[in-house]
Design goal:
With 501 residues, this protein is an alpha+beta fold. A five-stranded mixed β-sheet has the order 10-5-7-6-11, sandwiched between helices. Strands 1-2 form a two-stranded antiparallel ribbon. Strands 3-4 form a two-stranded antiparallel sheet. Helix 14 packs antiparallel against helix 15.
């Protein structure tokens, strides 16, 4: 639309003889209104055509005369009655589909439910199959969501009741055992009496008695259930139970040391050097302080033959013979002081012996380590001497009993001592160099050997200084061990010899 269609041309400077301004304005508004109405009508027609019409294939839309558009019947207009319901032209009520907006989470939940239903149907189909094994668990394709698992009400109350009942039974059994100990009846005799009293009957594997025989001496009722449901007081329910409580005497464990031993501190070579350097520096500073305060005289210059001319200077040039004699005298004096200091630090013979004993000796107050060896033949004097000397050097105690092919060696000491002596007996001494006649066949020769019968810990030592004992028979040897309260050492060694034979 151009402005020339509704704006009249008027030459400038001439008076207007045409229509007035109001007429022109009314004409423009009328044209605009007509054009807007036409545009709205064309838009509505195109929209209606797009929604309700179908285009026939093979038609040419550019042609004006050919109308190939096939229109569809329009929907019936909606009418509201006096009650507000939607009705059509005939007055029938129309049910409109209401679509409510929903969240994505709800949509996903619906999809999951549908997927579960399909999965369950598939699993059910597999179960129907003849190849399905119900013992094999089929894992779902989707991981199950973890949720809270709540216990049924009363679960823990039942569990607590069981624990309390078990604790009561344990207390009753302890009281029965204490009563038996106070009466002085041994466990073996008690079992013999009980086995004679209780009638023997063949019980099946799954047969549960009404009351166990060990509880029948305490409970007055004939079953546990009757005892629990009974309203009798505890004094009448149970027999042989009193209000007395036995407090056992507290004893110290046998292997526990008397006092706590502090852990020794081991320094490295670099740390020892640093510590020595610091100590020497502190001593030097203290000596310098005393010299400054006048408590000590300043030391003489350390003159040697090599630095005599540099230290003494002019005095050495004037009388070198006299200066040389003085220097030699100082050197001899220093040498003598050094030797005297070494002699003062030197240990005496007794101190050396004590030092060696302290190094070898071990603390056996918390327990004594014992080892029992058996040697087939111990007639060689060199081997006997080696065993005796090592036992004395290691400050160990024990006994050596000589009897045919059962030569028993018992040694007592600390763990380190036992380790060294064990190496002597089993590695250093070559027992196989000698041959021994067999006990069963005297004409047959076998190699001599040493066997470790037993090693362990005991509370106290049973023997003193090492002694050799010759035994004419096994009863004499056993009596010897029995006098020291360790006859089981001999029994163990003698039985092992019998088994070897």
């Amino acid at each position: 639309m151009s402005n020339s269609s509704f704006v009249p041309s008027m030459p400038i400077g001439q008076p207007s003889s045409g229509p007035s301004a109001d007429d022109i304005k009314a004409r423009i508004q009328a044209q605009l209104a007509s054009r807007i109405a036409a545009l709205n009508q064309s838009l509505a027609a195109s929209d209606l055509l797009r929604r309700t019409s179908t285009i026939v294939p093979g038609t040419n839309l550019s042609s004006k005369n050919d109308t190939s558009v096939k229109t569809v019947s329009k929907p019936a207009p909606l009418i509201l009655d006096h009650e507000g319901r939607t009705v059509d032209i005939t007055g029938k009520e129309v049910q409109l589909v209401h679509r409510m907006p929903t969240l994505k989470a709800n949509i996903r939940a619906q999809k999951r439910e549908q997927f579960k239903l399909t999965t369950q149907e598939r699993t059910h189909d597999e179960a129907v199959s003849k190849f399905y094994d119900p013992r094999v668990e089929t894992k779902p394709t989707v991981r199950a969501k973890r949720s809270f698992k709540f216990h049924e009400p009363g679960t823990f109350e039942t569990l607590a009741q069981k624990i309390r009942t078990k604790a009561k039974l344990e207390v009753l059994q302890k009281e029965i055992a204490q009563a038996a100990m106070r009466t002085g009846v041994s466990s073996a005799a008690r079992l013999a009496v009980l086995s004679a009293i209780v009638p023997k009957k063949e019980n099946k594997e799954d047969d549960i008695p009404e009351i166990e025989w060990w509880d029948s001496f305490v409970l007055t009722d004939n079953s546990y259930e009757a005892s629990i449901n009974s309203d009798k007081p505890p004094e009448e329910k149970y027999e042989g139970i009193t209000h007395l409580i036995e407090h056992p005497m507290q004893m110290k464990p046998p292997g526990e040391p008397n006092k706590v031993m502090p852990l020794p501190v081991f320094l490295t070579k670099k740390e020892r050097k640093k510590l020595r350097r610091q100590n020497r520096r502190e001593a030097w500073k203290e000596k310098q302080e005393k010299i400054r305060l006048g408590l000590e005289p300043p030391p003489e210059p350390k003159v040697k033959m090599s630095n005599m001319m540099r230290v003494l200077g002019e005095q050495a040039i004037k009388d070198p013979t006299k200066v040389e004699a003085q220097v030699r005298e100082q050197v001899a004096k220093r040498q003598k002081a050094h030797e005297e200091a070494n002699a003062a630090r030197k240990l005496t013979v007794d101190q050396k012996r004590q030092k060696k004993l302290k190094k070898v000796k071990e603390d056996t107050s918390s327990g004594v380590h014992v080892a029992v060896y058996r040697v087939l033949n111990l007639s060689n004097p060199a081997k006997k001497f080696k065993i005796e000397v090592n036992v004395k050097q290691l400050t160990m105690t024990g006994v050596i009993v000589l009897y045919k092919n059962v030569n028993v060696i018992v040694v007592e000491g600390g763990p380190s001592q036992q380790k060294k002596f064990k190496r002597l007996m089993l590695q250093r001494i070559k027992w196989s160099e000698e041959t021994v006649s067999a006990e069963s066949d005297p004409g047959k020769k076998i190699e001599n050997k040493c066997t470790l019968i037993w090693e362990g810990m005991v509370k106290n030592r049973a023997f003193g200084e090492l002694r050799f004992k010759n035994s004419p028979n096994e009863s004499f040897a056993r009596e010897l061990f029995k006098n020291h309260g360790v006859e089981h050492y001999w029994d163990l060694a003698y039985s092992s010899s019998i088994l070897d034979n």
